[in-house]
Amino acid sequence: MSSAEGTVAEETEAEVERDEAREALLAQFTAELGDAVIGSHIRPGDALWVRVDAAAWRTAAEYAKGGLHCEFFDFLSAIDWLPSPFGRDMDSQEDLVVHGKEPKEAPPMQSGYAGGDTRFQVLARVASTSRGHDVILKADVPDDDLSIDTWMPVYAGANWHEREAWEMFGISFAGHPHLAHLYLPGDFEGHPMRKDYPLLARRVKPWPGIVDVEPMPGGGDDEGGDGE
Amino acid sequence: MTAISDREKLAYMAAQAADARLNVELETEGMTLNLGPQHPATHGTLRIVAKLDGEQVVSCEPLCGYMHRGYEKLTEVRSYPQVTTLVNRIDWLGSFANEVPFILAAEKLMGIEAPPRAQWIRTILFELSRIANISLFLGDLGLQLGAQTMGFYAFRDREYVLNQIESATGGRFHPNFDRIGGLKDDLPKGWIDETRRAVGKLRDFCDETDDLMMGNEIFQARTRGIGVIPADVGLAYGLTGANIRGSGVDWDLRRDNCPPGLVYDKIDWKVWTHPDGDSFARTWVRLQEVREAISIVEKLLDSIPSGPIMAKVPRIIKVPEGEAYVATENPLGEMGYYIVSKGDLVPFRVKIRSASFNNVSIVPWVARGAYVPDLITILASLYFILGDIDR
Amino acid sequence: MIPLLAAFAPPYWLATVIKVLIVAVIVPTAALILGILFLFKVMSWMQSRMGPQEAGPRGLLQLLADGVKFLQKEDIIPDKADRFVFKAAPVVVLMSTFLIFVVVPASRNLVVENLDPGIFYALAVASLSVIGVLMAGWASANKYSLIGGLRAAGQLIAYELPMVLAVVGVVIQAGTLSLTGIVFAQNSQGILGWGGLGLPFILTQFVGFAVFIAATQAELTQPPFDMPVAESEIVSGYQVEYSGFRFLIFFLAEFATAFAFAAVAATLFLGGYAIPWIDAGSDWYYLLGPVVLLTKILLVSFLIFWIRFTYPRFREDQLQTFAWKVLIPIALLNIVVTAVLKVVL
Fold first, then answer.
1. What is the DSSP string of C11-77?
2. CB pair distance less than 8 Å for A75 and B111
3. Considering only alpha carbons, which residue of chain B is nearest residue A157?
């Protein structure tokens, strides 16, 4: 991919300014929250990730809204970093071509940008329409007590997002007035988005891979077409 | 800025107090009305439980999830081209627009840029799906308010745009046309001129809507001052698109944070806002946006570069490890995909940020104190698609 | 032929039976004509579509097919509904429509009963349908019906007044309440001395005509006044629990009432069964009268339905404001001006 090399060379020159803006943001965060900022990551010209301590989750939101003028609430969700115990569920032609006959072994659990120590992380993004900057906030949710502060007093829109994160991942938000099911029926048991919750469709019928054209009713012998 | 949280707290307290009042007073009984899930006013299976005092809504709660398909779980077992097909069906009225942010996020992680011709055509199809989506909104608003003729005119004129989308991509509703690195196919011969003619007809439709609906005194009486959303409340709820531009916030992702891959910075175009924040403002902004989309399409059609339609991309796509978030200004609002990739065939986690989810979460706040017909107007003017809310 | 008709003087009981039969036939037929012509065909053409095409030649028998369909449906009454009131409600609404046809003249003698307080009787009887609507809304044991019924009660009562006041202007000009007398008055007077066109009261009472048409739209619960039946909100309002032939009665009643009000409007404002060049008492009207009246009815109905298909609907409080703060003052002003001009000129 030769285009990537050319752009990398340009980026190191042209992106320094953009870099600086995001680094300034990060510096402001660190100045305000101090030790609570555990990790960060900047992709130049694109986005800023900041990982804060779980106890400082709401403080980070308040600073983002007040100090950084990020009054626009984008989304709040969670990530489950456990590699799926069911594998990739794709025994298709592509899988075999890429990995050979044996399915690839599941890698150890590893978090993404800005690091992470626990299985669950909450993820949120806020932006500023007036200043034009944005920040993606992450926080580890402690493994033994899946609970973190609610963002509702700061951003009213977090209401539904937190309800969804609770019902999908099982992370409870302390202080949320009405943590009830949003998408799922009221008596649903389990938290579907967790990696160890199976996708039942694939358990019932494994992925068929490249689907050949069904033979004609008379029993004609069709060459299996490329079913991409 | 704690004023928002105070207001929200007051809203909750007011709703609780009203609840208590309704249950204790013996003279009048509040009524709980279920709007939906089967109801002509909610564009799909949305259920709204409204507590009424006479004709006024004391509190209301939208209950979604009747169409939850588990997209985020499904994307974890599908390869990137398969996810593209899946994602078409989130906002099914402007479905090409759903694919674009996903493809752009994957391209960002892979470091690929689509060739200029593909970018141009991508943007044109993006705007065409915007025209198709919002012209249905205009007709549907008329239908909700009782002007049945508007609905028919909208469906009739939308056909021109859908025909163009179909002739380019093969599908009216689910094009499935975007690919990582470019597009599936090049345009058919004569498509450019036909599209120019088609969007010209849409311009007549916009003028007709202006006459028939926007200038109508009854329409104005039904929408002016109804469902006022102040800008700060809208931003705290994450309202996007024409909803927030109708409240005076000058924020459009096509101009302000345009991801590489769409060519809005190559042409001149205008962002429309309206200061009022009521239903009329939101409708007016959408009507102007359709007109603007038509002129954007015409300008882009005049300047399509020639060249390849697809960059050099491996046959089996494995996106390198990393995380990326790309959001675009979809017809319904801001739609974004947060892709977490582990360097594999399939994404590790895809968080779909859909516009209608945030747009509908504000309904309890807006609808307090409104009349039942106003609730319908508010729902219609906030404009959501069930697939977008429920994913 | 005409002298024969003129000389036909049956005994009272036979005449009454014939008149009742004719009205009983006219009402459904009128509903049929209006329904097919306006609801299906004209509405479709306005909305740039073709309308029903299958039933009968070019879809003209669609309503008959619909009627048969309704008749063969199961009669469902909700469990919690008040059975007697539920069954009686559509009948009450339809009855009031039949009663309006008693005074509408198709010619000097082709009228069921030439009542002296003609228009007063017609308006009084038209307001009986409010009771039927309320009965339907309450007896259905359904919250949507209740909302629809309450909205209807407020609306229909509110719009009675503008209708009556609009008519008062015509009455002052004509000098009589009897509908036949009003037709005679329009036929015999002239415009500024020229008797060529007669004096259809729409020319002098244009304000009254506008108010009357607006009030008629409201009395028929049609857009822009169709809050009680707001289809996209409360899905048919007070009619929502009715199915089968009970709904058919409501449906018939709506179009038959439209026909009746259009007939009244044509008689009051457009000259009724008379055309200007033939004197209103002439015997030609035995044949000509119904035809002329039908034409004028179709014209007025076209206007009513045209407004129906175009405008969005008012909200309930805006509807009431419109009646009480706009239509009634205008109608009152119209009466004052008419009275003054009648005395002065």
1. -HHHHHHHHHHHHHHHHHHHHHHHIIIIIIIIHHHHTTS----SSSGGGTTHHHHHHHHHHTS----
2. no
3. B237
pLDDT at position C260 over 80: yes
Q: How many angstroms away from the CA of B68 is the closest CA of chain A?
A: 6
Q: What are the structural domains of chain A? A: 11-204 (3.30.460.80)
* Total domains, chain C: 1
Percent with pLDDT over 70 in chain B: 91
Say how far apart CA C44 and CA C52 lie, in whole Å. Answer: 9
Enclosing domain of residue C158 = 2-344
- Residues 6 or more apart in contact with residue C179 via CB below 8 angstroms: C103, C104, C105, C111, C114, C118, C119, C122, C264, C267, C268, C272
How many whole angstroms separate alpha carbon A101 and alpha carbon A91?
10
Confidence (pLDDT) at B294:
92
Express each pLDDT in C56-68 by its tens digit. Answer: 777 777 777 888 8
- Spell out, as residue ranges, where chain A has pLDDT lower than 70: 1-18, 87-107, 208-215, 218-228
Q: What is the DSSP letter of B75?
A: G
Residue B28 has φ and ψ, to the nearest 5°, of -120, 150
Whether residues B218 and C313 touch (CB distance < 8 A) is answered with yes
Q: Say how far apart CA C305 and CA C39 lie, in whole Å.
A: 8
* Interface present between C and A (3 or more CB pairs within 8 Å): no
Stretch among B312-326, B338-352, C41-55, C76-90 having the lowest mean pLDDT: C41-55
Distances (CA, A) of B120 to A82, B177, B183, C204: 40, 14, 11, 64
Question: How do beta strands A172-174 and A147-149 pair?
Answer: parallel
Whether B287 is in a domain gets the answer: yes
Nearest CA in chain B to A126: B238
Interface test with B, best of A8, A81, A94 (most B CBs within 10 A): A94
Number of domains in chain B: 1
In a domain, B371, yes or no: no
Residue with tokens 């626990």: A118
CATH code of B299's domain:
1.10.645.10
Residues B334, B162, B300: CA angle, nearest 5 degrees: 65
ipTM of this predicted structure: 0.84
pLDDT at C54: 79
**pTM summary value:** 0.82
Residue C227, CA atoms < 13 Å, CB-side half-sphere? 26
Residue at B167 is within a domain: yes
* Interface residue of B237, B250, B329, B335 to substitute, partner A, most A CBs within 10 Å: B237
